[in-house]
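If your schedule permits, I should be very grateful for your opinion on a structural question. The matter concerns a single protein, recorded as an amino acid sequence and a row of backbone structure tokens. Could you please explain, in whatever detail you think fit, how the structure tokens follow from the sequence? I set the record out below, with my sincere thanks for your time.

——
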Amino acid sequence: MHFTGTVYRNPYWPTWPLLEITQGCTHNKCKFCTMYKDVPFKMSPMEWIEEDLKELAESDPNARTIQILSANPLVLTYDKLAEVFEMIHRYLPKMEYIYVAGRVSDLKNKTVDELKKLKELGMREISLGVESGDGWTLDRINKGYHAEDILEQCHKLEEAGIDYWMTFLNGVAGRSHSHEHAVNSAKIFSQCKPMLVGTAGLTLFPGTPLLEEAQRGEFDPLSEKEMLEELKTFAENLTCDCCFITHHTVSGRNLSGPDFLKHKDQIISALEREIKHGDLDAMAAIRRSKRTL
């Protein structure tokens, strides 16, 4: 298999098989991320992709799911993605679900009709690294798109019938803009229909512009308690009925299942308990031990 660097995959999706069709990230400018810092973006040669599919056809000919790598393969044009997906079906004829991650901006080069055709080819679920719905925060962390872009592109997915995930990056706005980040993100997310909202807590990794700004006093990171308080504010203001997952922030994961609104009060109560009684020092130690997203 042609895995050209560190493999980052969604741990909640089936972990095998994996197929790398791109390398690196087209944007590669988010201030909190170094995942693909030294990896130029390019599409894998079709010869490599076909060789990998031949290998998968021998090792797992009955595969029904596949996760596409790397950072944002969704940025490829409809024609390129369709060509890859059709090849997947040739070598893995029982394929049903093709999982793809991407950026909100990756959807701009695709029409609703093209998205519908990609769904017919198996792309039924995608994960979007949204991070925030607050305009100030999106600009501050250099995401490369705006809140209205989130709404426009997510509504295209809804019209195409494709399920999607949205991520909220807890703490990324810093202390001075924490409340606005939580409330405005919840407002934007609530105008969408994600199947899942996942929250991750900011870790300031070496080599990230955000850490360098914090060291210069230009970014004011939240404490563990403040992270929990921000997450609670986000949950209180979130009104879309989805699966809700918290991780990287609390000592345990709060899983609501497919109906967040039904379990909303329980999740908020759990966060309140963490704020009052959680082992914040242990949480901070876990965060300090992390080396990458």
Summary: The longest helix spans residues 260-277.
